[in-house]
Amino acid sequence: MNRSVLVSGASGVLGRAIVSSLSASGVPVIQGIRNPEKTKGGVESVRLDYTEPATFDAAMKGARGLVLMAPPLDGDAPAKLGPLIAHAKSSGIEQIVFISAFGVNHNEQAPLRIVEHAVMESGIPYTILRPNFFMENFSEGSVGASINGQNGIFLAAGDGKTSFISVHDIAACVVAAFETPLKNREFDLTGPEALDHTEIAKIIADVSGRPVVYHPLTEEQMTGGARAAGLPEPAVGYLAVLYGVVRAGYAAGITSDVENLTGKKPITFKAFAERAASAWKQ
């Protein structure tokens, strides 16, 4: 029987890190993604589409564990993930590791908090991991693009600090959750320090040689730019909420959970930036 761990959302930056870390630890892994024909490497891939329940059975067949991730900025996450969680129960999944988000346990109406409750009430042993904003947001995706294209970070974060965390530290916690195993427990994952975006810009400028500057936007400016870039309206609203949390200072908390889980301190942003410097080289 295949006693693998199925990783949903495996094509994203965090999903790829989780697949790599589990594989490196000797844990059999299956990548669950919408277009498995596009994957590379030696890890088995299966089609898994949250909007197509017909894909659930084959994806979970024989798997012992499930790493569950919601689509980014998706307010409909509870409706999309609910059927998958129910199917995991009937498929014999023995543990769900759900990647939630830092602070959602303080807002019972937050979409990811609703998913947390669905996981906890499923009857399947679970581990809830709540990571803060990813360091990799600055080296990949839209923020990385604005750094490379305009030497700037354009966000409505005010002067709020965030305890950014690398996806590789999150992935190490996923490995620990399955290997220990850590069942029916919740963890808040942060980096070792809280920095504002002016400090982030300076670190990136120092390691890359680019004159990177943080440009604080109003919420209206940020959401208007997101709409102009084609982001769907529900995602625009979600984005506004996230950076409202940052401006209010709620993303600045620091925990020791990464070190407690993995035995290693999480990477600092400076060390991350030094490793990722090639992403910003001119």
Alpha-carbon distance between the termini?
50 Å
Strand arrangement, major sheet: 3-2-1-4-5-6-8
* DSSP strand content: 5-15%
**What does the radius of gyration come to?**
19 Å
The description of the largest β-sheet is: 7 strands, parallel
How many helices? 11
CATH architecture descriptor name of the largest domain: 3-Layer(aba) Sandwich
Low-confidence stretches: none
**String of helices and strands:** EHEEHEHEHEHEHEHEHHHH
Q: CATH homologous superfamily name of the largest domain?
A: NAD(P)-binding Rossmann-like Domain
The overall strand count is: 9
CATH fold-level name of the largest domain: Rossmann fold
CATH class of the largest domain: Alpha Beta
Rounded average pLDDT: 94
| Percentage of residues in helical conformation | 40-55%
Global morphology: globular
Keywords summarizing the entry:
282 residues, Rossmann fold, two-stranded parallel ribbon, 9 strands, UDP-galactose 4-epimerase, domain 1, alpha/beta, 11 helices, 41% helix, 7-stranded parallel beta sheet
Description:
This protein is of the alpha/beta class and 282 residues long. It has 2 domains: 127 residues, 3-Layer(aba) Sandwich (Rossmann fold), CATH 3.40.50.720; 108 residues, Alpha-Beta Complex (UDP-galactose 4-epimerase, domain 1). The chain contains 11 helices and 9 strands. Strands 3-2-1-4-5-6-8 form a 7-stranded parallel sheet, sandwiched between helices. Helix 1 crosses helix 6 and helix 7 packs parallel to helix 11.
